[in-house]
């Protein structure tokens, strides 16, 4: 199981690096094409918008993996160890539920997009490009569940 988790983490990190590199190269090429030839490639700007979505959601996955996501932790700063542990379990569980709801509804959105034949750009269907939304929120929800269970079982000290 640990090898699978390590492999998933490496795949996420590699995909983030590749997406960022692709964005830099495509944006640079588009800027050069506009400057040197008077016009860029028509499909690069919409592709960059899709890559920003993918990069943002994969970055959110990385943040949840390392527990560096945005959190309001006033109670955790003021509470004792038992209350802190309980509140961590509650907030992680709540985050998992919210991510699950978003994943569910974004999957429904994806199905509607597929059924209506939405086109993103250059005759490319929109739904494969939007598939990152339910996938990333489902994975974030699973991570929040795992972190909540880990906190409930092992406490806050052993977490990395």
Please tell me about this protein's structure.
It is a single chain. With 160 residues, the protein is mainly alpha-helical. The chain has one domain (2-154). It is 79% helix and 3% strand. It has 6 helices and 2 strands. The chain has helices at residues 2-37, 44-65, 74-78, 81-116, 126-130, 132-154; strands at 119-121, 124-125. A two-stranded antiparallel ribbon has the order 1-2. Helix 2 (44-65) runs parallel beside helix 6 (132-154). The longest helix is centred in the N-terminal third of the chain and has 36 residues, at 2-37. The protein is elongated, with a radius of gyration of 20 Å.
Summarize the structure.
The protein has helices at residues 2-37, 44-65, 74-78, 81-116, 126-130, 132-154; strands at residues 119-121, 124-125. The chain is mostly helical and 160 residues long.
The major beta sheet can be summarized as: 2 strands, antiparallel
Our estimate of the beta-strand percent is under 5%
Please state the overall shape, judged from the principal axes of the Cα atoms. Answer: elongated
Helix content: over 70%
Rg estimate, integer Å:
20 Å
Low-confidence stretches: none
Structural class: mainly alpha
* Amino-to-carboxy terminus distance: 18 Å
